[in-house]
Amino acid sequence: MTFFKSVSKDHSGCKVNLEEPTLPTVNRSLSYIQVTVEGISKMLSSRDVHKAIGQDNLPTLLLKECAESLAPSITAVINFTVREGVLGNWEKANVSPIFKNERQYKSG
Q1: Domain boundary assignment for the chain
Q2: Which of 72, 88, 87 is nearest to 27 (CA)?
Q3: Do 63 and 44 contact (CB within 8 A), yes or no?
C-alpha cells in the first residue's frame, strides 16, 4: 500500500463531471425518414424461420411470431434514432465461413 501512495498523484482538486454523456450525432438530413408500425410488423412477419440467429441473439421464429407485439417498440426506437440523429453500430456482423463440399469449388 505504501508503494501505491508514493507513486500516486493528489487528485483531490479534480472536478468530476456528473452531466449526462453526449451521444454521437450524425447529419440530420435523414430526419425526414419515418417507418411505420405496419411496415415493421410486415418485415418481422416475413422473416425466414430457417435462417440463423442474428447479432441480437433472438430466434427468427420469436421475431416472426411476436411481430405484432414487437413492432410498436421497434418502430419507436428506429424513428427516435433517425429523428434525433443518434445511431449505433448497425454495421456490426459476425461472419463465419462454412465449408459445404469440395464440388462447389471445382470448376468444370
Answers
A1: 32-86
A2: 87
A3: yes
Cell numbers describing residue 108: 468444370
The DSSP H or E segment spanning 71 is helix 67-84
Name every residue whose Cβ is closer than 8 Å to that of residue 53 and which is 6 or more positions away in sequence: 59, 60
CA distance 53 to 56: 8
Query: Amino acid identity of 3?
Result: F
Asked whether the beta carbons of 42 and 74 are under 8 A apart, the reply is no
Question: How confident is the model over 40-99, as pLDDT tens digits?
Answer: 999 999 999 998 887 788 899 999 999 999 999 999 988 888 887 776 666 666 667 776
Which of the 8 DSSP states describes residue 28?
G
* pLDDT value at residue 33: 79
